[in-house]
TrEMBL record:
Its cofactor is pyridoxal 5'-phosphate. It is an enzyme of class 2 (transferase). Phosphorylase is an important allosteric enzyme in carbohydrate metabolism. Enzymes from different sources differ in their regulatory mechanisms and in their natural substrates. However, all known phosphorylases share catalytic and structural properties. It comes from Rhizobium favelukesii. The lineage of its organism: Bacteria, Pseudomonadati, Pseudomonadota, Alphaproteobacteria, Hyphomicrobiales. It is found in: Cytoplasm. It holds the Pfam family Phosphorylase. Belongs to the glycogen phosphorylase family. This is Alpha-1,4 glucan phosphorylase. The modification N6-(pyridoxal phosphate)lysine is found at residue 672. It comes from the Bacteria. InterPro entries: Glycg_phsphrylas (IPR011833), Glyco_trans_35 (IPR000811), Pyridoxal_P_attach_site (IPR035090). NCBIfam families: P_ylase. The gene is PYGL. Its EC number is 2.4.1.1.
Amino acid sequence: MNTVSKPTIPSPAPRSSKPEILAEEIIERLTYRIGKDAKVAKPHDWLTATILVLRDRIIDKWMESTRRVYATGDKRVYYLSLEFLIGRLMRDAVSNLGLMEQVRDALASLGVDVSVIAGLEPDAALGNGGLGRLAACFMESMATVEVPAYGYGIRYVHGLFRQQLADGWQVELPESWLAHGNPWEFERRESAYEIGFGGTVDVVNNPEGEPRYVWKPAERVIAAAFDTPVVGWRGKRVNTLRLWSAQPIDPILLDAFNAGDHIGALRESNKAESLTRVLYPADATAAGQELRLRQEFFFSSASLQDILRRHLQQYDDFTSLPDKVAIQLNDTHPAVSVAELMRLLCDVHGMEFDLAWDITRGTIGYTNHTLLPEALETWPIPLFERLLPRHMQIIYAINAKVLLEARRNKSFSETEIRSISLIEESGERRVRMGNLAFVGAHSINGVSALHTDLMKVTVFADLHKLYPDRINNKTNGITPRRWLQQCNPGLTSLIREAIGDDFLDDAEKLKPLDKFASDASFQEKFAAVKRANKVALSNLVASRMGIKLDPSAMFDIQIKRIHEYKRQLLNVIEAVALYDQIRSHPELDWVPRVKLFAGKAAPSYHNAKLIIKLINDVARTINNDPAVRGLLKVVFVPNYNVSLAEVMVPAADLSEQISTAGMEASGTGNMKFALNGALTIGTLDGANVEMRDHVGEDNIIIFGLRADEVAAARADGHNPRAIIEASRELSQALQAISSGVFSHDDRNRYSALIEGIYAHDWFMVAADFDAYAQAQRDVDQLWTDPSTWNSKAICNTARMGWFSSDRTIRQYAKEIWRAG
């Protein structure tokens, strides 16, 4: 270990948490950092001044956390993710520092409402859905359970996109969350790295050992670091989220500019900045695919260079890397890190290939989030080789080692060896990034028990046979700080009154709440909290969309990425069938229900965008039909993000978790809803299986085919047309949609979408419809008994503590990272 002596710098005295001192500091920041007199300050000025005051307190703890790691030599965890859906940070920081009341009082003394200015903070547009939100929960939990960690990602200027609706169609607009700066972040000029693309590879022969390879990129950009502190619960530890911004080496070609080529002079600058402008550029074109691969390599290379630099600051060489560093790849997006770490160790630091391979595998872990083969990412070899020629050589070398190992095993057939290969040989030759991540990691984990079991027999069956000890399970979790304490303060206060404060530090200590499930007085208070949350959501929908909701109706909510396997289509078809029943049988006592949807569709995903349009077309018809008598409303709330989820989740009575069984790896929305006292209607998919085991079969509504039954139906070639014709409600609903009942301006708009259900029904919409419709009527019956409903809802909240991301991170730390 390096022993360079450094001067001892005394730690600053703890800063005051008294409201009057906080108020003074807020005024000071407002005056001298923002340049505003309090008399003319606007709400956004007060927001920034308050963040700066909080940030000072965080910095003290941040530096203390960093010094502690250097002093102890603790192992660091590096979490590489293309997404971090962190949402607004002010309330998170205030709560975790334990300063909520003090900050509220300080601002109130200045005539400022903390809830008003907190609502002005933009959501950081750094993610899409569950993958990015999981990464954010994990970062907060790593700080909470005191695991020293860095998160690495991309500082997207516009992120995914801001979703608007135009006549019911999704419209993608730039999400300019950085337009007015970000007071939480710190630019780190010293942490800047060159990232190369293209070019050639030269060989330098070494008579005494392996030849040395020198990559000479044709293009280079700079990765510049921006750090955001991540505060753990009670401020015990502050970790770092480091995001990379792409900058050109030469921002302007001055000769070209002076010659009059003003556009060409900025070509390199624009090319570099495009790398970090948008999350998930549409990959339907070759240019889009190339940009996506460039993004993935850009942030992976910058992160690895940073990790190795930091390691060498403290240790003499890289032989200790697996003991002091754990790198976790969040899905396949950073899978190129396997080849890049090998390149850095071998080509830059002169290590022999076999030793570098041992160190790489000992350091990297890989989390798989999908069983969809297309989501595991593959890249055409011509594209990969043109952009990353040295990495292509390394991948071929790794592949040779792996395939030789399989052939020596003698028990692998040619078909199995082709499946193990890092190169897809059937059709267009492509690099399999999932396979690369698998062979380059010592640990491959699924994110729910079912998902992990399915990994072993589906996408990674043959790799699992070759390396039977690598796959393990780490069921996902959510941070209870944001998804209970912060988003649902009314319920949090009620729970504290009932069982005390222990659950604030350990979510599994919610269990004593169970004994209040049948308490009539507690049920009444619980229902009052739920109604207040529903009123808040109703007010939001009214202000944004001009739609009036009845808070006494059942709020039935499905919020997640729009995808056919998540089956928003099943939900809206059932809404059409229910609409027909309400009109046909007005004499029946129907339960008032509001079906709320939110979520974004990938810009190039035609059917997903068509489903959004269908939901809005159905909503327009149902909501404007007096025959419905307000018993059913359908609402699609645009621009789903963390802040919107924080309003919708606490307001839900019924949580829709209805993916095709075997296709959802885990889900985390299911956990958030249940923790906040919603009942789940869902398939036995992802973490729903474990949720059923924890909350009890009587407190969750399960329907439909199981994963093995879905696989069998697909293999046997099930007959969806016969299923549809045997179901009167389903056939009538499908006929209404396909014939243009909800699309008078284009009667054929949905004909192809519905024909897909008749023809193959890959996502088992028809196969599960009758079971789903019956389950919904069972839900109606349950709703008519408020005492039973509330009892079940309370049981859900009481029994969801195991699904805390603190538990998940402790398992990662103990069983994969050997850290903390």
